[in-house]
């Protein structure tokens, strides 16, 4: 079935026209095609940049849960696309990743006390090995976490065996460097 666009006057397939629900609760097709509708919206955005930005900020502010859900759905639907993009970014920004890794290594070294001997370091390595084995067995990603973070706002923990715990990755990432007193 075909329909004529009221903007570009071209005859196009009905599927190329946006649909809407009319006041009488009937689903109808717009009089203009999707490409004309997009051009019209883009032009309006350019002419009303401040108003558009304000509307977007207000929508985000009023729809936090809906936005969070749509972001999660996007991530689930586009895992490969996101993975490829991340891989490309890592390749392009290799120097930044190296700097960050080096910084973390220095921080861990700084937070490792002088009294930590080879036996203690071996226990720390075993904790990391246990974490890898738990991940393999359960199929759920786990992290070795510092109970008192080595770069916290209020407290700076030590990189010692007693300050390490194994947590599921999701729990560790939600903790995000915060020290929780229990």
E-strand count: 6
> What sequence of helices (H) and strands (E) makes up the elements?
EEEEHHHHHHEEH
Strand content: 5-15%
Helix content: 55-70%
Order of strands, widest sheet: 1-2
Overall residue-averaged pLDDT value: 89
**What is the number of helices?**
7
Tell me the structural class: alpha+beta
End-to-end CA span: 67 Å
What does this molecule look like?
55% of the residues lie in helices and 12% in strands. The protein has 182 residues and is of the alpha+beta class. The protein has 2 domains: 2-77, no CATH class; 114-182, no CATH class. A two-stranded antiparallel ribbon has the order 1-2. It has a two-stranded antiparallel sheet with strand order 3-4. Strand 1 (2-4) and strand 2 form a beta hairpin. The longest helix is centred in the C-terminal third of the chain and has 21 residues, at 118-138. The radius of gyration is 27 Å and the shape is elongated. The mean pLDDT is 89.
Brief account:
The chain has 182 residues and is an alpha+beta fold.
Question: What are the key terms here?
Answer:
two-stranded antiparallel sheet, 6 strands, alpha+beta, single chain, 182 residues
Please specify the SSE layout and strand pairing:
Blueprint: E1 2-4, E2 11-13, E3 19-21, E4 27-29, H1 34-47, H2 49-62, H3 64-77, H4 79-92, H5 94-110, H6 118-138, E5 142-146, E6 164-168, H7 169-175
Antiparallel strand pairs: 1-2, 3-4, 5-6
